[in-house]
Design a protein that fits this description.
Layout: H1 7-21, H2 27-42, E1 45-53, E2 56-62, H3 67-71, E3 74-76, H4 80-88, E4 92-94, E5 118-127, E6 130-140, H5 149-193, H6 204-216, E7 223-226, H7 233-242, E8 251-255, H8 261-269, H9 286-289, E9 293-298, H10 308-317, E10 319-321, E11 328-330, E12 333-339, H11 343-348, H12 354-360, E13 363-366, H13 377-391, E14 397-398, H14 400-408, H15 414-428, E15 433-434, H16 441-451, H17 464-478, H18 483-490, H19 494-503
Length: 510
Amino acid sequence: MGRNYDKTLEISALYEISKLLGSSLNLKSNLRGVMRVLSEYLDMKRGTVALRTDNEVSIIAAHGMSEEEIRRGRYKLGEGIIGRVAKLGSPIVIPNIGEEPLFLNKTGARTTIKKENIAFLCVPIKFKNETLGVLSVDRLFGSKTISFEEDLRMLKIIASLIAQSAKLHQEVEKEREAFIEEKENLKRQLKGRYRVENMIGQSESMQEVFEAVHRVAPSKANVLLRGESGTGKELIAKAIHYMSPVSKGPFIKFNCASIPEGLLESELFGHEKGSFTGAMAARKGRFELADKGTIFLDEIGDLPLSLQPKILRVLQEKEFERVGGEKTIKVDVRLIAATSRNLEDLVSKGKFREDLYYRLNVVPIFLPSLREKKEDIAQLAEYFLKKYNKENNKSVTIKADVLDVFMDYEWQGNVRELENTIERLVVMSAGKVITKADLPLNIKDQSIKSKYGIQAKDALTSTIEDIEKARILDALTNTNWNQAKAAKALGITPRQIGYKMKKYEIEQTA
């Protein structure tokens, strides 16, 4: 005789199973819930879901079995009932497992029940034509012979739902693995890119910096990078991180001078929901994000005095609370700080805590300005030229006398100013060669004044007469003292250049 389901129970079971399969991305947990529903709603005992991996099928979720019994549930394709269903892709029903030699009882879950009281139903979990695994259940029965058509119908529906969930899980896992692999590849590339061996600097002062990086990187010591703006402090911080034992952890950078004082604490330490107007949700701060890695605090000298004790506590106790929170959060973070300011002067004026200064200044590394390592200018210029030629699909070169001008220039913005200058020259170049005429006005003016012995002055106090005289001298020299050509180059008339030469007492030298 056939088994008749209560339609209400059937619909309720399918509803609960659908909810469970869509409740999370934890497939095993979801499937355990499905097996529980089969037992509670439809009286199907010891349900299992076994998924296929290559030539093996393994139980990953079950109801009514111990963890040890689940671990034993592994079958080769074609082995036992589960293995055969996985191989053939067709359902199998064993009305009485006590009379079936193919039934292996590998799990050992049925030793306490007489085998003649158990029927075993097994259906493939299929997505389109691909068999992903097997769904199986036990049915307990008495002495009467019964039909299992209704059971099979229900199990096929449920197996179809499981198949969709399992396939989705497979795709998510593939994407996750691809993301992890991409992330690891990126980290390996960054680790290679930020090795000091790849950094430019043949000068003695930069070799000292590289040696210091090699020594400090393997330790957990706090590092304080000191130097003018544009000297490459962030680049050195990354080198220390990627050469350190925490290179697989995050590298989080934060500029203490870039955020209004009222938001700094929240940015660094995070906040709880509702802790202030606009805090619609809890948020992690930079220190929390940097856990098991490195945090780089640039312009640490601009840190407000009110916030310095909290930074000190993180360094000493490795703990803090979010804004508006009471829970103490523990972090394991290496700190690299940087500043272009005179911290000792700030300490003496009471604007920077002395105890924090000593905590930060464990290993100080001083980065020289470009003026102090002029022997690196040509190599840096060549590197930036290649970089921006490639970015802009150009093949521009620089004349030797332009490099001479670079060597004489002060570079107040250091390497950053040099890089920006090269980029601008490449982008704006109309020809294949960059000449002195292409140089920005500030570099050109300093070069002219240096060439003609005009006393160098601060840009704000240089007189218009000095600059004008220097430009006229340069134009006349470049045109072999042909006043008409020089006037044309300057964008003035021959009469005007004559007047200017008289005014500034400019005469051709032998």
